[in-house]
From TrEMBL:
Signal peptide: none annotated. GO terms for molecular function: 15-cis-phytoene synthase activity; geranylgeranyl diphosphate synthase activity; squalene synthase [NAD(P)H] activity. Pathway: Carotenoid biosynthesis; phytoene biosynthesis; all-trans-phytoene from geranylgeranyl diphosphate: step 1/1. This is 15-cis-phytoene synthase. It catalyses: 2 (2E,6E,10E)-geranylgeranyl diphosphate = 15-cis-phytoene + 2 diphosphate. One of its GO terms (cellular component) is plastid. The gene is LOC107900428. PROSITE patterns: SQUALEN_PHYTOEN_SYN_1 (PS01044), SQUALEN_PHYTOEN_SYN_2 (PS01045).
């Protein structure tokens, strides 16, 4: 699973307040870049047209439903729980503490954000983490479809101002302060259902959909909170796509890092058809032997993961300046995980690639420098 946060307080589609909509060809070019990222295009057929359009429709729907004028002073269509301010402050403090404990680097980046955005991001992070733990946490053995059904009902209660506990209350308050829609949250729960039903993925198209559900959705949840820079000339749809790409790239990186650990649980989150193209099967994964064929296969997978980070990169520069640092930190650190896999001679079967504390600390000022870059007119 992946718990990562990506990128409006003023999203717009087309022409908005004098801003120019980016050309449609921009999205087409970006998606083509993802599909043809590997150096040997015949190796990876990529996504089918239908697979792409399915995600396009989801993103378009989220942009439309989350696009009211201003996240902090626009009209709010929600039922705000009648809690005392001190109770809500305590609820957000609990979310902050959880984020600080389990996502230390990202948490440091959030400290530059405005207070309202900080609290909202912490609340979203905590909900995503709790959702993930239903399947991967210490009580995962007790998971059943009924648990996820109840969790989805509880999500609806959160959006309707009936939180179950203090952590739910923080998110319930957040959805009244920002234009958050339930769809990305529900889609994440659907990703958990997927995890209980599937342990193999026949093609990258299937894996891409899974990555959208469990990680791309986090980016879509975060867009209304992070804020788009006032000087940005890029459409909201393009920014949402950048957030989606960052989530996909992060999840693909998690999958590549955790191949050996997942194999011990009988899971293979790798496209079966692409394994076959390199003469590999699940048996090779479970044998945990690094061969030349495995190295060649991993090189192509890493190229693909990096292509998603490339697509996300300039989207990160379109954010409100106070929100860029945590996104750049996440993007740069996840790239270093891919570097670590290479440094391990592509042995992700018996070794876990990780970025040491020193490298993480050295990355933070570099990420801050990148966060100072101004939005450009067009994405590459």
């Amino acid at each position: 699973m992946c718990i990562t946060l990506s990128l409006s307080s003023k999203p717009c589609i087309g022409v908005c307040n004098g801003s120019l909509q980016s050309p449609k060809s921009m999205v087409t070019t970006a998606r083509t870049e993802v599909i043809t990222a590997p150096k040997r295009p015949n190796t990876f057929p990529g996504l089918t047209k239908q697979g792409i359009s399915d995600i396009d429709l989801r993103v378009q729907e989220v942009v439309r439903r989350q696009s009211w004028t201003n996240s902090l002073d626009g009209e709010v269509n929600c039922r705000k729980p009648p809690f005392e301010p001190m109770f809500i402050d305590d609820a957000y403090d609990k979310c902050r503490n959880i984020c600080a404990e389990y996502a230390k680097t990202f948490y440091l980046g959030t400290l530059l954000m405005t207070k309202e955005r900080q609290k909202a991001i912490w609340a979203i992070y905590v909900w995503c983490r709790r959702t993930d733990e239903l399947v991967d946490g210490p009580n995962a053995e007790y998971m059943s479809p009924a648990v996820l059904e109840r969790w989805e009902e509880r999500l609806q209660d959160i959006f309707e101002g009936r939180p179950y506990d203090m952590l739910d209350a923080a998110l319930s308050d957040t959805v009244c302060n920002f234009p958050l829609d339930t769809k990305p949250f529900r889609d994440m729960i659907e990703g958990m259902r997927m995890d209980t039903r599937k342990s193999r993925y026949e093609s990258f198209q299937e894996l891409y959909l899974y990555c959208y559900y469990v990680a791309g959705t986090v980016g879509l949840m975060s867009v209304p909170v992070m804020g788009i820079a006032p000087e940005s000339f890029v459409s909201a749809y393009t920014i949402y796509n950048a957030a989606l790409y960052l989530g996909i790239g992060n999840q693909l990186t998690n999958i590549l890092r955790d191949v050996g650990e997942d194999a011990l649980r009988g899971r293979v989150y790798l496209p079966q058809d692409e394994l076959a193209q390199f003469g590999l099967t699940d048996k090779d994964v479970f044998s945990r032997k690094v061969t030349d064929a495995w190295r060649d296969f991993m090189k192509e997978q890493i190229i693909r993961a990096r292509s998603f980070f490339n697509l996300a990169e300039e989207g990160a520069s379109q954010l409100d300046k106070d929100s860029r640092w945590p996104v750049w930190s996440s993007l740069m650190l996840y790239r270093k995980i891919l570097d670590a896999i290479e440094d391990n001679d592509y042995d992700n079967l018996t070794k876990r690639a990780y970025v040491g504390r020193t490298k993480k600390l050295l990355t933070l000022p570099l990420a801050y420098t990148r966060a100072l870059s101004k939005p450009s007119l067009y994405l590459r």
